[in-house]
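Technical annex, item 7. During the second reporting period the consortium partners agreed on a shared format for inverse folding records so that results from different sites could be compared directly. Each record opens with the tokenized structure and is followed by the designed sequence. A conforming record, contributed by the partner at site C, is shown below for reference.
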């Protein structure tokens, strides 16, 4: 992929903060800025994809989730009732 140059004006305090953050991550300022922008872009794309998925499949996912909850509740009540009971404090006579 070809790279392009971007020139940005930034105040001194912000630049110092960016330099400190980059150094703390053992990165150059360029690496830090590019990585931060890519991460931000990824998050926005992920949110958009999630919204689109929910618009298309939200009802199906909600039904599947409800069915999973019913099945889990049924499995919980089918098990031994004593497994959730506190341990007995009665002593056993020898």
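Designed sequence (site C submission):
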């Amino acid at each position: 992929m070809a790279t392009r140059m971007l020139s940005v004006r930034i105040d001194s305090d912000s630049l110092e903060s960016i330099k400190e953050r980059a150094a703390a991550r053992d990165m150059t300022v360029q690496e830090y800025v590019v990585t931060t922008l890519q991460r931000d872009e990824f998050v926005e794309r992920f949110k958009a994809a999630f919204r689109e998925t929910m618009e298309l499949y939200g009802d199906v996912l909600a039904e599947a989730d409800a069915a999973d909850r019913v099945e889990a509740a049924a499995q919980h009540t089918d098990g031994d009732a004593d497994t959730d009971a506190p341990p007995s404090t009665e002593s056993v006579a020898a």
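The chain has a mean pLDDT of 82. The chain is about 65% helix and 0% strand. All partners now use this format for quarterly exchanges.
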